[in-house]
Description:
two-stranded antiparallel ribbon, CATH 3.90.470.20, 5 strands, alpha+beta, three-stranded antiparallel sheet, single chain, 4 helices
Amino acid sequence: MRGLGIDIVEVERIEERLAKRILGETEMQIYEQIVNPEARRRFLAGRFAAKEALAKALATRDFDFKKAEFLRLEDGAPVPSEKTIELAKNREVKVSISHEKKFAVAVVLIL
Length: 111
Ligand SMILES: CC(C)(COP(=O)(O)OP(=O)(O)OC[C@H]1O[C@@H](n2cnc3c(N)ncnc32)[C@H](O)[C@@H]1OP(=O)(O)O)[C@@H](O)C(=O)NCCC(=O)NCCS
């Protein structure tokens, strides 16, 4: 294992305007399709946690959060985009996200 990161985010502190700052194009498409406002906020909180967890796993925040996208497989599982894998110097990147009403958490592994 080359890197490990975890992050926890309080959902109610997440504001809608954060979406434009941190979501990549594909993440934004997913976000905009979520109708329920609370579910939208949880999704945004989860993606923010995943990007912060990636920063910890890479030991740097010196990258554009919009470029570090976590896409969604058909079954709902999050996966790193090609660009995110490039940021990790083409190493394998694993991510897991969970959210409840109050908190969202994410873990990222670099292998
Ligand atoms: C995956 C599953 C367990 C999520 O459980 P949950 O308690 O409702 O939701 P959580 O808050 O813990 O997690 C939500 C996050 O799980 C992730 N997720 C969704 N489906 C997933 C899957 N199949 N595998 C891995 N992660 C998944 C997503 O990142 C999601 O957040 P996002 O939509 O904002 O990206 C649930 O959707 C499920 O039972 N799916 C069908 C069975 C399955 O595929 N299970 C895989 C693990 S046993």
